[in-house]
Amino acid sequence: MNIGIDHGYYAIKTRHCSFPAGITAYGSQEPYTRRNLLEFGGNFYLCGTARQPLQKDKTRTDSYYLLTLAAIAQELKARCAPPECSITIAAGLPLTSFGRDKEKFTAYLFRPPQPVVFRYEDTEYRVTIEDVRLFPQGYAAVLTEPDLVVDEPSLLAMDIGGWTVDLMRIDNGVPNADTCHSLELGMIRCMDTVREEVQRQTGLSVTDAQIEQMLAGGPCSLNENVRQIVREQGRSYTERLLSAVLEAGFDYKALPVIMLGGGAAIVSRQIQPNINMCRLAALPDDKLNAIGYERILAQMSPRVGQS
Q1: Over the stretch 194-251, which tens digit does the pLDDT of each residue have?
Q2: Cα separation values, 57 from 20, 64, 175, Å
Q3: Distance between CA atoms of 6 and 292, rounded to whole angstroms?
Q4: What phi and psi values does residue 92 have, to the nearest 5 degrees?
Q5: What is the structure's pLDDT at 98?
Q6: How far apart are CA 73 and CA 246, in angstroms?
Q7: CA dist., res. 213 & res. 208, Å (int)
Q8: Which label site among 133, 147, 202, 260 has the fewest CB atoms less than 10 Å from its CB?
């Protein structure tokens, strides 16, 4: 079967699952819980813990490989698939680094020996990774909503991730590689700025989950003063981001914009009416890249079902 995996800085996503891209190693000592517990190579790892330090080169350590195994286990469970199976991984890279990193990231995920034997929570898995196929990040998500592209000669796709915001102009339904740009202005930067400002003004230490909930307009027990600070910082971050988009050569007053990725719902909510964007569509489901990878792979290999 095909399993799409989006290896984000902030979260790992599959078609059915999303969890924080954090991992805590416990060595050979079993930790206090088996929830989200990965056993591999004689060692124990808790997956989906608090955000890990930024790792621009995801192949530098084994963290993203171990998180990949956790993602496979969670997705197989969500599909009620057997723990002993063969899969093809469909993953992605930004177009800005696609050619440079494609071979290295493929080898990182597609390593011997096969099958990969590991235990996740209370289930042992024997998964044969038959192939790894990589696709352009962002564009794959846009393809899940083709009606947004039809009859638009040009549009801007903004993939708002944890660390980067990847910009791509799509002309006549095809990504223009020469226009791709990556800004280090993802939601982690927003969260850190909000947290620091709340701490400075109130002395309170708020969590990422609280900040995200307030930015999305959800309920939170913190007082109105804190919520107002969060809203103001969210608008300030959005203004900085849109200014950087203009500086990168993308006129969002002339180009329709598709916002996607984990930050799409939050950023689109902060845009004020005076911004006068040409047209804005937000795709808030952070799993769309993973879904898009699977769909592209299925179209390329029609004999291989998605299951």
Answers
A1: 999 999 999 999 998 899 999 988 899 999 999 999 999 999 999 999 999 999 999 9
A2: 18, 10, 24
A3: 10
A4: -150, 165
A5: 86
A6: 41
A7: 8
A8: 147
How many CB atoms sit inside 10 A of residue 251's CB? 10
Taken as a whole, the chain contains a residue count of 307
Residue 212, CB half-sphere, CA atoms under 13 Å: how many? 12
What is the rounded CA–CA span in Å between residue 241 and residue 259? 12
Q: How many CA atoms lie within 13 A of 252 on its CB side?
A: 25
DSSP characters for 188-236? HHHHHHHHHHHHHHH-----HHHHHHHHTT---SS-HHHHHHHHHHHHH
For residue 302, the model assigns a pLDDT of: 56
Interacting residues of 287 by C-beta distance below 8 A, sequence separation 6+: 6, 13, 14, 15, 16, 17, 18
Do the beta carbons of residue 9 and residue 186 sit within 8 Å?
yes
C-alpha of 35 from chain center? 22
Give the separation between CA 284 and CA 263, rounded to whole angstroms: 7
The single-letter DSSP state of residue 267 is H
Full-model pTM: 0.89
Contact 199, 299 (CB under 8 A): no
Q: Which residue type sits at 85?
A: C
Alpha carbon distance 24, 134 (integer Å): 27
